[in-house]
Write a structure and sequence with these properties.
Layout: H1 2-13, H2 36-39, H3 48-62, H4 66-77, H5 83-96, H6 99-112, H7 117-129, H8 133-146, H9 151-164, H10 168-181, H11 186-198, H12 202-215, H13 220-232, H14 236-249, H15 254-266, H16 270-283, H17 288-301, H18 304-313, H19 321-334, H20 338-347, H21 354-367, H22 371-384, H23 389-402, H24 406-419, H25 424-436, H26 440-453, H27 458-471, H28 475-488, H29 493-505, H30 509-522, H31 526-538, H32 542-553, H33 560-569
Helix pairs in contact: 3-4, 4-5, 5-6, 6-7, 7-8, 7-9, 8-10, 9-11, 10-11, 11-12, 12-13, 13-14, 14-15, 15-16, 16-17, 17-18, 18-19, 19-20, 19-21, 20-21, 21-22, 22-23, 23-24, 24-25, 25-26, 26-27, 27-28, 27-29, 28-29, 29-30, 30-31, 31-32, 31-33
TPR repeats: 390-423, 493-526
Keywords: Repeat, TPR repeat
InterPro entries: TPR-like_helical_dom_sf, TPR_rpt, Ycf3/AcsC/BcsC/TPR_MFPF
Length: 574
């Protein structure tokens, strides 16, 4: 009698046992903290030796002596019928990364509860981690037999863990063996498609999902994956057909509808996209997401009045007012109504679009050279969006650049580089400002730092090549950078212009003119026009040079490149 009283007292106290500082987990599978009371059935007959093993395990756990706890639980698990003791041993073994004893505990657990899916998942994970294909197939087969409906979800739960361990290809191979054994099991082929997609083998993924759909033609999840894979490969026609088929079977499925809309828009099937939106709105006229999508499609079509009408319907919806106001502002920018655009941008006070709206407002003001209004806005943005501090600094630097305060711009960008020394955009921006300050050593250093990480960065190649051409006589080095940039982007106007300018500096004006004119046809910028005019002037074609200059100078009398040309060649009224 005293023995059973002692056991009852111990069980009532054990719920207070201390768990490990970090609760053991099975490679990401959740583990619920438990006391001894929950691990042993009250109806389980426990002899005195087992009782002491459990007491020892609890005490070892309280003292963070998990290896001792593992040994005690494992010995106890072998002597009682309750599988939960073995389960505890498995979880501690996984926590300790002790694979040998974890396998031993798993064997005990499965011998006492062979249909336990959690145990099977642990067994699969260990087998795959150790490249034990036979054990992996055996345990997956057991999962499929015991829970065919939950098999797919169970394996998907483990795929991220397998990917993290770099075992995706091995897992695919295991499922290949399973597919041979179960040729009519659609879920196996579907899982293979998912894994093939993770492995970036789009063709194989499509083949496997097609096999799944041959077995189970109306499986929406597989249809969605088929559409995603088709879209990834650029086959929008197939993606559309798959989604339309799935949508007929599940017309209320929002995800399917959203995906189909994306496919239609990406395929420029705007009329069909509008029809799909209208069909939804017939049943749900206030569906905000559909209204918003419809407005964006109208904007793509250039039907601005219709887009505005739809966006204005969203202004009374607090959750959608911000994005509606933002896009109404963008419409006004395109229509050259800056003040109306600012009013819309300023209406976006919070939400996901608030920062974008403030940035759009500053950009608009900068284009209009309303610099006196910008500084206060930038200060407000810095206080309002601390997480966007770097982007705000970049805007501040651009403001100083526009104002001709190049040293201030340089200082702001240097400050930004203290927090993010390898940031490409900051390095590039500071390099351009450094050129203005004749800090060519800084320019070269910053651009070289970009090229060290990304040798094919066309912007950096072009900027460095052009600067060496225009500001030094290091033409051989300049040619190396510009030829590389031209090979990467042969149709980029600014690169063609830089290369043409290099030819002029090398004393090849006729060849230079070919490149410069080609650049100007692609992008009629003032700097390129000034280059052409100077080359024409050097060739004695002064009349043609002056005609070109006059045509662009009328439109941009304040342009620095045109003013420089005027100062150098036309100051005597020639």
């Amino acid at each position: 009698m005293k023995k059973w009283i002692a056991i009852a007292m111990f069980l009532s106290m054990s719920g207070c046992a201390v768990s490990p500082e970090k609760e053991p987990e099975a490679e990401g599978l959740p583990v619920k903290p438990e006391g001894l009371e929950s691990r042993v059935n009250r109806n389980t007959v426990i002899d005195e030796e087992v009782l002491y093993l459990l007491m020892a395990a609890e005490l070892a756990g309280q003292r963070n002596q998990y290896h001792l706890a593992m040994d005690a639980y494992l010995q106890a698990a072998k002597r009682v019928d309750d599988p939960r003791i073995a389960e505890r041993a498995v979880k501690i073994g996984l926590f300790l990364k002790d694979e040998q004893r974890t396998r031993e505990a798993l064997t005990v657990w499965l011998s006492k509860d062979g249909k336990n899916l959690a145990a099977r998942k642990f067994a699969v994970l260990l087998a795959i981690k150790n490249s034990d294909q036979k054990a992996a197939v055996e345990n997956l087969n057991a999962m499929l037999a015991d829970d065919p409906a939950g098999f797919e979800a169970g394996v998907l739960e483990m795929t991220k863990l397998m990917e993290k361990e770099g075992r995706t290809q091995f897992t695919y191979d295991v499922l290949e063996e399973l597919a041979v054994e179960h040729p009519n099991q659609a879920s196996v082929f579907f899982l293979q498609a998912v894994l093939a997609s993770v492995l970036q083998n789009n063709e194989l993924a499509q083949q496997k999902v097609n096999q799944a759909l041959l077995i189970q033609p109306d499986w929406n999840k597989a249809v969605i994956l088929q559409a995603q894979l088709a879209g990834r490969s650029g086959d929008l026609t197939k993606a559309r057909a798959s989604l339309e088929k799935a949508l007929k079977a599940a017309p209320e499925d929002k995800m399917l509808r959203k995906m189909l809309l994306e496919v239609l828009v990406n395929g420029h099937d705007y009329d069909d996209a509008i029809k799909l939106c209208q069909n939804v709105l017939e049943d749900k006229p206030d569906d905000a997401e559909t209204l918003f999508t419809m407005a964006l499609v109208y904007m793509q079509q250039g039907q601005i009045d219709k887009a505005e009408n739809v966006l204005e319907k969203l202004l009374n919806n607090p959750e959608w007012e911000g994005q509606a106001s933002f896009y109404l502002g963008k419409i006004e920018v395109d229509q050259q109504h800056p003040d109306k655009a600012l009013n819309w941008f300023d209406r976006v006070s919070d939400g996901n679009y608030a920062f974008d709206a403030d940035m759009a407002a500053v950009s608009l003001l900068m284009n209009q050279k309303r610099f006196d209004e910008i500084e206060a806005r930038i200060k407000r943005m810095d206080n309002k969006y601390p997480e966007q501090h770097l982007r705000v600094l970049m805007v501040k630097a651009e403001l100083y650049n526009q104002l001709g305060k190049y040293q201030e711009a340089f200082d702001v960008l240097t400050l930004a580089l203290k927090d993010m020394p390898d940031n490409r955009e900051v390095l590039y921006a500071r390099a351009l400002v450094a050129e203005r300050l004749d800090k060519l050593d800084v320019l070269e250093s910053d651009l070289q730092k970009i090229l060290e990480k990304k040798p094919d960065d066309v912007g950096a190649l072009n900027a460095l090549g052009y600067t060496l051409t225009d500001r030094t006589q290091r033409y051989e080095e300049a040619a190396k950078y510009l030829e590389r940039a031209l090979s990467l982007q042969p149709d980029e106007a600014v690169v063609i212009d830089s290369y043409g300018w290099l030819q002029f500096k090398l004393g090849k004006p006729e060849r230079a003119l070919e490149f410069l004119r080609r650049a100007y046809e692609k992008q009629p910028e003032n700097e390129i026009a000034a280059h052409i005019a100077e080359v024409l002037w050097s060739l004695g074609e002064k009349k043609e040079a002056k005609e070109l200059f006059d045509s662009v100078y009328k439109k941009s009398p304040d342009d620095e490149y045109l003013l420089e040309f005027k100062k150098r060649f036309l100051q005597n009224g020639q």
